[in-house]
Design goal:
Layout: H1 13-22, H2 28-38, E1 43-46, H3 51-63, E2 68-72, H4 79-92, E3 97-99, H5 103-113, H6 122-141, E4 146-148, E5 165-168, E6 174-177, H7 185-195
Parallel strand pairs: 1-2, 1-4, 2-3, 4-6
Antiparallel strand pairs: 5-6
Length: 246
Amino acid sequence: MSLAQPLSAQLSQAELAAAAVELKTAPAEQVLAWAERRFGSSAAIASSFGAEDVVLIDLARQHAPSLRLFTLDTGRLPPETYELIETLRKRYGLEVETFFPQRERVETLVSTQGYFSFRQSLEARKACCGIRKVEPLKRALTGRQAWVTGMRREQSVTRTGVETVEFDADHGGLAKLNPLASWSAKQIWSYIQENGVPYNALHDRGYPSIGCAPCTRAVKPYEDERAGRWWWESADKKECGLHVRG
């Protein structure tokens, strides 16, 4: 789809802009209910099964049950993440659409650069993320009108500008919804505890943000939530390319 064209036959950029104003400070439940009415099964939640994502899944089952759910399996996820996925599948009766990286590209990367090339430089890390995450995301979003994420402004310096409703030109002109944009970590955990939502066991071991196992570690109490992601890089570089900003 050309970026100069409308988002779809039904949704124009002007309508999305109006929705962005209307839903800017709306509760997550209202944003999800709007997504259900406007997109239904043509929208999907992108989940890495962190704390925010399990909250989204629980809320969506109540307010946007038609939304699809997908995840990107990089081949290097912690076992605790897979255990959680299975727990959630059984609890909610979920179908989790799973997208893997292209085998040939992974084989070439590892054969020529080794198993830890991503620690050599920012460029090398982004190349690994490009193969294991960015390309699979493009396939995951093909045919969608909208995607929903658990991004929050409080998470890191790279996410302070996150809006509740955005136009995502980088993935073909989709609507991108971030219903939890204004939520604090305290709100996330209060929801999980009050509603008995299953969550990744690594959170109890000091991992507020969880990605690939070799690229994630526990953080100190004084560090920000994403300090354990690619900890050898500066804070303003800690994005993998899934969420392009600016």
